[in-house]
UniProtKB/TrEMBL annotation:
The chain crosses the membrane at residues 42-64, 76-96, 102-123, 135-158, 164-184, 196-215, 227-247, 259-276, 282-300. This is DMT family transporter. Belongs to the EamA transporter family. Residues 17-145, 167-298 form the EamA domain. It comes from the Bacteria. It is a multi-pass membrane protein. It comes from Pseudaquabacterium inlustre. InterPro entries: AA-Vitamin_Transporters, EamA_dom, EmrE-like. PANTHER family: EAMA DOMAIN-CONTAINING PROTEIN, INNER MEMBRANE TRANSPORTER. Keywords: Membrane, Transmembrane, Transmembrane helix. It is found in: Membrane.
């Protein structure tokens, strides 16, 4: 995985490519929900997605003749990062399987808070003042988006959380684990080429998912054409987005990711409404936009 950074102000082409990647990542989660609705389970989806992505990025590493140099620290850190991203992948797809896609991604978008917490706990870093100012705003937006009191759903808090509690738990766990993975990456493996790091991480995630598939008795493949479409789409979209990230963006002057890519939940909200019939209340939409805007503000502050 690569840490968010921008080397210089974005060109129009770079901005468009970043939006395309965000669209593809949001569409990947909508496609995953479609697959889950038709017989696919989480470990099967992660195995397909991660395996194909690992092969695509490994091919890119080979074609571009990226040197493979690992220190003893890297040999410890890379397996740890792979395990963390494996847990994050399973948890996030588990959230997508249980919640409206946009809400799962919004809860996951709390990962900057977890990143700051882990940096403080593990490496004794003081939180960025911008992060401290953003925390209450982001938490307010998340509370509105999740409808924590059950007002928008009309169910009341207890019944509402009975419906969404497990999904929110998976999404927040994914955010916490991803935050830790980012911190470990930044401090222990930032000097590993991003393509090599991603190929290693996705390969390990794919192997972990295959182990889960074997433990549960085999692949759970789609039971309808729509499920096959979802499984193929999520695999294509995820792998293509990562390949674009490492082939096109460097040529446009963008290193890694950018804050603009955090509009992914907005794309997911529109696509899930159009393709899956998922809709959330206006107040939840407002809360979601508040979360997205806050995360983008944090990302722009790192430029």
């Amino acid at each position: 995985m690569s840490s968010p950074a921008v080397s210089r102000p974005l060109s129009g082409a770079a901005f468009a490519v970043l939006l395309l990647i965000a669209l593809m990542m949001g569409a990947n989660h909508v496609a995953a929900r479609l697959a889950f609705n038709h017989g696919v389970d989480v470990t099967t989806a992660v195995a397909f997605r991660s395996g194909v992505t690992a092969l695509a990025v490994a091919l890119l590493v080979a074609v571009q003749r990226v040197p493979l140099r690992f220190t003893p620290r890297h040999r410890f850190a890379l397996p740890a990062i792979g395990a963390l991203i494996g847990v994050q992948s399973i948890c996030l797809y588990s959230a997508v399987a249980r919640l409206p896609v946009a809400l799962a991604l919004l809860a996951f978008n709390s990962y900057p808070l977890w990143t700051a917490l882990w940096a403080r706990l593990v490496y004794r870093h003081r939180p960025d003042p911008r992060m401290l100012r953003a925390m209450p705003v982001m938490l307010l937006g998340l509370a509105l988006a999740l409808d924590v009191l059950g007002a928008s759903s009309g169910l009341g808090a207890a019944a509402h959380w009975g419906q969404i509690g497990a999904g929110v738990g998976f999404a927040l766990t994914a955010a916490a684990v991803f935050g830790l993975a980012l911190v470990v990456t930044q401090h222990e493996a930032a000097d590993v080429d991003g393509r090599v790091r991603t190929a290693s991480t996705m390969g390990q995630v794919g192997l972990l998912a295959l182990a889960g598939v074997a433990w549960q008795g085999g692949l759970h493949l789609p039971d309808a054409p729509a499920g096959w479409a979802g499984l193929m789409a999520l695999t294509f979209l995820y792998g293509t987005a990562f390949t674009i990230m490492f082939t096109v963006l460097p040529r446009l002057g963008v290193v890694g990711n950018s804050a603009i890519m955090n509009v992914e939940p907005v794309f997911a909200l529109v696509l899930a409404w159009a393709l899956l019939g998922q809709a959330i209340a206006p107040m939840q939409v407002a809360g979601g936009l508040l979360v997205v805007a806050t995360v983008i503000w944090l990302g722009l502050g790192r430029r």
